[in-house]
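Bug #2210: token dump truncated for Metal ABC transporter permease?
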Amino acid sequence: MFQYEFMQNAFLAAIFISILCPMVGVFLVLKRHSMMGDTLAHSAFAGVAIGLVMGFNPIICAFIFTTICGLSIEFLRDYYKKYAELILSIVLTFSVGIGITLISTGKASGNVNSYLFGSILTVTKADLIIMVILSCISIVVIYFLYDKLLYTTFDEEGAKISGINVKAVNYIFSLLVGATISVSIRIMGILVMSSMIALPVATALQLDKGFKPTLLLSILFGFIDIILGLIFSYILNCAPGGTIALTSVVILIVIIIFKSTFKSRN
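Reproduced locally. Full output below:
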């Protein structure tokens, strides 16, 4: 399996994705903004469509468009303070509308299905380089903003009082989410992108640990989900997005059953 270059590229990309997605996802989930990941994943569809129609790199276009949408979500929060979920519907509708309109023109220069469902065959060296660069930048930014992100996640008002520029932190975090989604869509696919952001975190939360252990466990479960999903995808000759999503759900169910069984015995 690993003698093929496309599998080597896919697994290298998977390693970075398995670190980056849960790392960003744990903050999104604890902020109760997990649906933001789904919204921006669909925003990536519009970015990919723009790239395919205009002849630009779809991953870079997806990053630019998801970044714009992420910043727009933060900007619109001031106008819909009591209806935050409505913002996600607005951005999602706008993005999907653009994507469907452009793709339906028939002018796309590539196969959009590989972006919708994920593909282990189409991850090129150029894609891998872009993924590595964006992933490394995102991880470094999270490392330096860790304390501020943690504070704003659990107590945004307290963070404001303590002098943290919460607005700036939220805008930077939106950029991180956009980068995370854009580097992951080649493997995960747009339609199930949010599963890699939310489900490893949901699995880790079942173990009732502190924040740092939960973060590390999320990365561990993310790695297991994506590696097993890629292996099943290769064996079954199907899109990796679906197998990774199913694997993550199965592992979550297994952990829930294990936890329930352990508690009942005690």
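Output looks complete on our side. Residues 5-265 form a domain with the ABC transporter involved in vitamin B12 uptake, BtuC fold (CATH 1.10.3470.10). Marking as cannot-reproduce; reopen if the truncation happens again.
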